[in-house]
Structures are given as C-alpha cells and as structure tokens.
Amino acid sequence: MPTLDPATLRRALRLSVAEGSAWAFMIGLAESYFIAVAVHLGASPVQLGLLVGLPLALGATGPLGTIALLGLSPRRRPLAVAGVAVQVVVLSGLAVALRLGQLQLEVLIAAVCVYQMAGQAAGTAWASWYGDLVPAETRGRWFSFRNRFIYLATCVGLVMGGLIMHRLAPGGTAAPGSAAAFAVLLGLAAVFRSVSCGLLIASPEPRFQGLLPRRQAVKAARTRQGGQALRILMVGSLLHFTVYWSSPYFAPFMLEELQFTYLQYMMASLVAILAKMAASWPWGRLIDRHGARGVFLGCMVCVALIPLPWVWASGLGVVVFAQLLSGASWSGFEVGYLSLLLENSRSRERPYVFALQSLGHGWMQLAGALTASLVILPRVEGFRTVFAISAAGRLLVALCAPLILAGLARGSRETLQQTGWRVFGLRAHGGFSVRPVLPSGESEDGERELTDTPAGPR
Q1: Within a domain: residue 147?
Q2: Which residue, 42, 215, 255, 406, shows the most beta carbons closer than 10 Å to its own?
Q3: Is 448 a member of any domain?
Q4: Would 398 be classed as within a structural domain?
Q5: Residue 148: which of 20, 310, 297, 265 has the closest Cα?
Q6: How far apart are the C-alpha atoms of 96 and 102, rounded to whole Å?
Q7: CA distance 365 to 425
Q8: 409 or 354: whose pLDDT is higher?
C-alpha cells in the first residue's frame, strides 16, 4: 500500500475535511433545489421524470470513464479536479441563465446530466485516491469523522437555501422572484464548489497501484462469490426501478398540491437527512453484531412502506413522519446493501462491482421514472395513486428478495470496521446516499483463487 510521510498525511486529511465541507455546502444549496427549479419552470410529469432519472442513468457512466482513464494514466487527482471544474461551470451557467430569465427545461435537464456525470467521475477518482491514502486500520474512524462535517455542512447549506428562497420569493414556486432567488443559490453553490476544487488541487496524492485487469474481473464474476454479488446487485436495481415510480413526484406534490412554502419544503428535506444521520450508527452496530443480510431485507420492507403516508398527507405533520421513515429506512438499506457487496467481492474487484452498481441503478431509476410518467400517471388520478402503486411494487420486490438471496452470507464485522463510507450526494428517494471508499490495490490474505468455486444454479 503506498503511503505518505506522517506530516504530509495529516495535511492531506485536514485538506480533505475542508474540501468535503465546501462540497457539502454546494450539495445543500444546489442538489436539494434542482426539482424545485423545474417546478418553477412548469415541468410536466415526463420532464420531472427525466430530470430525476436521466442524470442518474447518464451519471452512472462517469465511473466507467474514470476506470478507463485510470488504465491509461496513474494519476487520480487530475481526474477528480477536472470533474469538479465541470460542475463549477455547469452551476455558474445555470445561475446566469436563471438570472437572465432564459433557462429552458431542456437545458436544465441536459445541464444536470453533465453535472451528475462529472460528479460521479470525480467521486470515483477521489474514492480510489483516498482509499489508498488513509491507512486501513483508521479508515472507518477517519471517514466517519469527515462525514460528520459533511452532514453538518449539507444541513447548513440546505437551511441557508430555504431561508434565501423564503426571503427573496416568499410566494412559493409561482412567485416572480423565484428565478432570481434560484440564481443566487446556484451561484453560491458554484463558489463553494470552486473552493472545493482549489483544495483538491492542493492535496497530495500517493502512487497508484492500479486496478484489477478487466479480464480477471470478468473471471471473478463466474465464481460463486461473484454470482452472489450479481444477485445482490439485481435485487438493488429492481427495488430502485419501483422506487422511481414515485420518487420524482414527492417534491412537486409538496410544492404544488400541498402548496408548501420554501421553508416547509426545506424542513421536509432536512428531516430526511437528520433521520438518516441519526439512524446510521445504530444500523452499523446491528450489522456488526448480527450481519448485514437481516438488516438489508428488513429495511427493504420499510422502504416499501415509505410512500404510504404520502397517500394520505394533507400537511407538514404527515410529511415529516414520512420523511423520518424514509431517512431511517434508507440508512439501514444502504449500509446493509453495501456491506453485503463488500462481503461478496474481493478488494481489487470492487471498483468494477460498484461501477456496475452505479450503471444498474442509474438505468433502472430512469426506466422507473419513465414508466411512471408515460405508463402509470396517464392512467391514474394524481400523485397519490402513483405513491400507492409504487408501494405495492416495492413490497413485491422486498418479498421476493429472500428467495433471490437464499444462502447468502450474513456479513463480516471486520469488513465493515475497515471500510470508510463516502457521502456522494442527495437523492430524491431519501436524503444522503453513501458508498464505500476502497483501496485500489490492496491485497487480501487468505483469499481463494478465482477459479475455486464456479457459480452455478442455486
């Protein structure tokens, strides 16, 4: 494992905490309000589905591009900096277009697609970079420490955004000042992302050991362990397909049908984040003691129930309850899901596993959003029915999951303790999303050869 001298390492970790905080301010100011901008511009259900689903689908190609470029050059910092710089340009352009009153929905969707592709590409390079930089024995503790600042900065950014919108456009999405207020938000987000870019440039990078050759990664997929990882990915992708029947429509439901003010919208978004933060530690302890499989399957049922309170929601109280359920449920689901993937893959295979996860989830999210906007919504009356149908679809996947994952290992405490979790953005379905930060070239003692246990029908 490549290392830096202690003084340089301490400097790199301090810079990373500051960089993560600046990035988190951007998340709270920008990603939290993309859907609100679309609602202000008069987006149709199809356009809302595309705004939520298409950037995630195309964004999933970002990690694949990073992996391909890492095969050509042993430098990760330039890739991370380039992706961040693209995000600065996108946010600045959106802010200017809004200020001039010239932003079109098609341009917004395309811009958010570029933003997501650049962000996920940069995140993949950063995760490989810091997975090598942070010592394995302190990785979990250090990333937990860093994430506290990220959680706090994101919440502050989200609240700041809500207060700015309430001050400049108190009448909601239809208020004349909304475009100018959104321009202020995205302009501030671009400034914070520029600070993040500068801190990345100043951060040292250890020597890159390289990824597992593609041929060996394909060979790994044919082992029993690789087959288990593919089954886990399939269950996760199927669930996200049904989740995105409803996810694009919670924000417009709040802003249009429930006629929330920006302060109420901000409060509802904040509750999901706080619930996810509060629940992550207990779920992690439960996984350490009893394994990830039970937590994963149990939380999948809870995720299936999330849309039901929305069916009867008539004010902020029920929405807050729904957001509490959402944040707590998604926290356990994501940590359990990623823990199972860690347990059922080897270190040098994992960049490919998580690139495949991004790709599978992204395209299934787009398929789910388009299914809702083109097939479900035209045949039902309003968003409430869509929420109920999404709950039924999620529950069907949750009930089938134990059969698909029969014989799966419970999970490993050691795997979890040596893994750092990286917050990588906000999602419409429930606050923060996280992924593990993995060393790119770490060897694992005692691992079996890839050919030892062929995958077969189970």
Answers
A1: yes
A2: 255
A3: no
A4: yes
A5: 20
A6: 9
A7: 16
A8: 354
